[in-house]
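Checked the freezer inventory, then went back to the computational side. Two predictions to log before the end of the day. The first one is the construct we discussed on Monday; recording sequence and tokens without edits.
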Amino acid sequence: MLFKTLKEVISKLDTSTVSKERQEVLNPLVKYISAKVEAEQAIRLNFICTHNSRRSHLSQIWAQAMAAYFNINNVSCYSGGTEATAMFPKVGETLVQQGFRILNLSKGENPIYAIKYSDNAAPVIAFSKQFGDAFNPASEFAAVLTCSSADEGCPVVLGCDLRVPVTYEDPKKSDGTPEQTETYFNRSLEIATEMKFVFSAVGNR
């Protein structure tokens, strides 16, 4: 069972706000996951952005939580970049505000975090890495491009079954401004709403 606060946040997300244009962007992912469910196969999603620091982590973590929320099993979510940097601290702060719990497993320039959405489910292990890192799946996965520069910079993602761009505006533009907290909070909820749309559509097919 998901943490109470997180479950409440998810329940209030309104998928009717997802535009027809965005639904068309998301539908290939819905079809991919649905086909895997129907075939009783493992579902692996690798969310890819340039630096694997913001949008790819938010997408990975919300997708994993939504799979649990809609009781869609055998889903494993990953993230990576065209280069490795670090998960930006504001991402973690935002997720905690929205009901996740985060354990810091290591420090240094590229910390490793365990991000929990439930008392009993395995946490999401989050750290910055290249999308082809050994931590991520080598084959039979969907590559979900969350920023346009990664989409342009990754013309080939080896081993993937599906390559689908689902791009978001970078909250980095707000860093160091009074709007930073609100921008990250809203971007996280935007991603969460679209991941809810995806997994609710899978459950209703």
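The second is the one RB wanted added to the comparison set:
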Amino acid sequence: MDRATICVQGGYEPKNGEPRVLPIYQSTTYKYDSAAELAKLFDLESPGHMYTRISNPTVDSVEKKVAELEGGVGAMMTSSGQAASLISVFNIASAGDNFIMMGNLYGGTTNLFLVTMKRMGIEARVVNPEMSDEEILSLFDDRTRLFFGETIANPSLAVFDFDRFVPLAHSKGVPLIIDNTFATPILCRPFEHGADIVIHSSTKYMDGHAVVVGGMIVDGGTFDWTKGGKYPELTEPDESYHGVVYTESFGKSAYITKARVQLMRDLGSTPQPIAAFLLNLGLETLSLRIRKHSENALAVAKYLETRSDVIESVSYPGLESSPEHARAMKYLDDGLSSGVVSFSMKGGREKAMKFMDSLHLASIVVHVADARTCVLNPASTTHRQLSDEMLKEAGIDPGFVRFSVGIEDVKDIISDIEGALACL
């Protein structure tokens, strides 16, 4: 099925006489007719649900829908996008290991990788597109476990160069994990460009209505975890499950199975059934919304380019003037570049904040990818924990504004911007 159809029909297939709409299975536990049946579940010998901390029928249906949208072999929903980022790395990296990360990642992810995971003994090594291939490869060693990037970086909007970075990662025998939050599987399917694992903050465009926090990890099922001896977590017996070897027992689904039955079990980053139900409602209109967001954002970006009197620069991959445009046309569906436009105000932080205070239709919120237009100054909010050098690495300056274009009539959005600029 086409992705637009999967958004509506995927994941849940009601049988004769069953509810047409995905039900909310609001139960922590499940009944079985015999102790032997339940024992098989705990030995990972048969499918089913044992406890909602690990899996749930409502959550399972949404996971299947997202896996189908991305073209993966399986998916696992988490309680947040941050939890998805953490588990995606921790699933294959232990104390003493390291991994490569792009320097333009979302600020929360950057802090997670450079601060919190450092305390866990896992080192993140930062690269940027300006580095030569040789410089990037020099950061790999025999304890490097993965390469992590974002399809469309938040908030710099740099488009990930799959054709460059996938071969670099694979030449060193490690998988590419890509955060596909801004693009969504409607605008980009990273597995088709060589990625191995995809994650999402489903809080953003997948939900699209700012009602439920969540995350998703999707396994492409293509990476060979047995080569090179780098991943004993997957290729050697797990004593917490009676010595199961994930690559032997679960084949292409080894990675996502381990993430669920070991890390979700132990860390408890569990999505609630109601969260999955609400996410599914958002997914049903995702194909329509992300295209409208993109069309509106391009119109807004073009308008902002005409206001060089107050705006220093405009960043949006859909603009022909953007240095990211060629990659957007190459990797994103029809060059559609999502709904976030970034720009820098002349006059720095003070002017940026006055601009935001002068808006009426657009709301100042710590969020993006809402059906409603919203705005933020990352340097003073979401990225304020970063040093000036790290801010520069992430493509942010004090006057930087992240403008998340909604699905309202674009004439009204531009009129709101015009009125706010007139107040500067």
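For RB: The first strand starts at residue 74 and ends at 78. The CA atoms of residues 288 and 405 lie 15 Å apart. Let me know if you want it refolded.
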